[in-house]
Amino acid sequence: MCIRRRLDGDPEAMTDLTHQVRPWLFHIARSYRLSHEMADDVVQSTLLTALLHVHRLRDPGSGLSWLSVVARREALRVINLERRYVCVADVDSLHAVPDPSAGPEEIVLDEVDRAAVRRTIAKLPHRHRVVLEQLVHADQPSYAAISAALEVPVGSIGPTRRRGLDRMRLLLAADPEWDWDVSA
Is 49 within a domain? Predict the structure, then answer.
């Protein structure tokens, strides 16, 4: 019903649709054993897809089925993306001290790499930079703390992190001083 109202130009229809389908979409996302935050990300992405593409729906009566399929595909996409990341128990291990037995050329090359990463992070938009820095530098990074710092919904942190990492990967690939494979 809300989809028909939206197609007829009712500006409140998407708000009503969101309130009606959010629990259902969240249930679908959680059925894929996603964390609460990741399930929120899936629901938010699904609702964004609905907002952007509802006008293409041939049969407005099949809107819930369509949204269910979109949520399932988004959950699978998130699962596949998360497989690329490795959880690190000790953040300090990411900032390892150079091996004392390493020669001067290795130490210089390591510093060149760190400088390239710092330059790349500085080129990112403010929101992406803050999210990535919070996730790396905080002892116990939490989506709630990042959400409060940026004054954005918790559900937008995951997609913002993903976009920041994607943009950083592109910038590093284009940096002539960076010689690592960033195709992840």
Answer: yes
Rounded (5°) CA angle 40-57-21: 30
Parent domain of 43: 2-82
How much is the pTM? 0.45
134 sits in the region (left: phi over 0; alpha: psi -120 to 50; else beta) called: alpha
How far is residue 46's CA from residue 114's CA, in Å, rounded to a whole number?
37
Q: Judge whether 32 and 79 are in contact, CB under 8 Å.
A: yes
Residue 69's alpha-carbon distances to 28, 42, 144, in angstroms, are 9, 12, 28
Quick one: 95 and 166 in the same domain?
yes
Confidence at 52, pLDDT banded by 50, 70, 90: confident
Q: Among 82, 107, 122, which residue terminates a domain?
A: 82
Please report, in angstroms and rounded to a whole number, the separation of the first and last CA atoms in the chain: 42
